[in-house]
Amino acid sequence: MLDEYKQYIYEGKAILPNGIREIKAFAFSNCSGLERIEIPASVEIIHYNAFYDCIGLCSVIIPDSVKEVGHHAFHGCTELTNVEIPNSITKIENNVFSCCTSLESIIIPNGITGIGDRAFYGCTNLISVEIPDSVTSIGNGAFSGCSNLANIEIPNSVTAIGESAFQDCEGLSSVEIPDSVTTIWDKTFKGCTGLTSISIPDSVTRIGWYVFSGCSGLSNVKIPNSVDVLRFGVFYGCTCLSNIEIPDSITDIWDNAFHGCKRLECIEIPNNVTTIGKSVFSECSGLKTIIVREKDPEKMEARLISSGLENLDNISLYVPIGTGYAYRHNEFFSKFREVIPQ
């Protein structure tokens, strides 16, 4: 805390004088006795770390005069339950409210265009968020660790959802991604154990690494034809995933894509798939049926040999008509329970 601000605090409340234009960086940082503050309408900027780790601060009203709130401004304000963000602000900066563990709801006003990296990271009691149509980007880790966040509506204005944006949001049960989004970056929904359904539009062309890893409640996913690669660990540890349709647009399935999907019973591999990485099907103990469209068993063997398939004698392999003999006499595929042309 800066010495010049000590004069404004009395019995846990800070009253700042009219006329000041800014609250300086680290102004009240680590002021554990601060519970309330009155910010006058003359203030235009709240600088970075201004209220960093003010663990007793329970409420704050930011006046309409404020045009900018710096990064980490309210980080670690663990008793903060309510914040009013004015329309005068156009971006929520990085880590502004990160680790505000008592914050329950937030209304982001129309006019905000971006939610910064880790803006609400670790807000474990945050239940609801309203995102307006003015927002175009959600930053990396923006809501990561918001374990009680039960519902999120992503508006059509959003074109980019950052890496780990909703990672470990365990209370999130369903998400509809708008058709304005073209990329879902790495680990966006990683560890969302309560997620049971996800809608991915045709506008999405790239699904990043480990996007749905650890989503143990996810049972059904439809991948749009606009996606051409299933990247590293995209469904790693999705233990309830029982149904997935791989579109013809997919050409590559990277390492660990379905690792640990214990309830996955059937998988169809389109003919356009030329690369299947290591351990793609490791620990897929429920896998009973594989359907392939490749007519050359040697090419198919080269793709599957390192994929981590286990208990081959429990798996039925469906192959193109006219290739049954060649597949049955291939050393690798001869280990399968049966080879059935269709």
Describe the structure.
The protein has helices spanning 297-304, 324-328, and strands at residues 9-10, 13-15, 22-23, 36-38, 45-46, 59-61, 68-69, 82-84, 91-92, 105-107, 114-115, 128-130, 137-138, 151-152, 160-161, 174-176, 183-184, 197-199, 206-207, 220-222, 229-230, 243-245, 252-253, 266-269, 275-276, 289-292, 316-319, 338-341. It has 342 residues and is mostly beta strands. It has a domain at 173-342: Leucine-rich repeat, LRR (right-handed beta-alpha superhelix), CATH 3.80.10. The strands form nine sheets. The protein has a six-stranded parallel beta sheet with strand order 9-11-13-15-17-19, with no helix packed on it. Helix 2 (324-328) links the parallel strand 27 (316-319) and strand 28 (338-341). The radius of gyration is 26 Å and the shape is elongated.
Terminal Cα separation, in Å? Answer: 74 Å
Shape: elongated
Low-confidence stretches: none
The total count of helices amounts to: 2
Secondary-structure element series? EEEEEEEEEEEEEEEEEEEEEEEEEEHEHE
Mean of residue pLDDT values = 95
Radius of gyration: 26 Å
Number of strands: 28
- Which homologous superfamily in CATH is the superfamily of the domain at 173-342? Ribonuclease Inhibitor
In CATH terms, what is the architecture of the domain at 173-342?
Answer: Alpha-Beta Horseshoe
Strand order of the largest sheet: 9-11-13-15-17-19
**What percent strand?**
15-25%
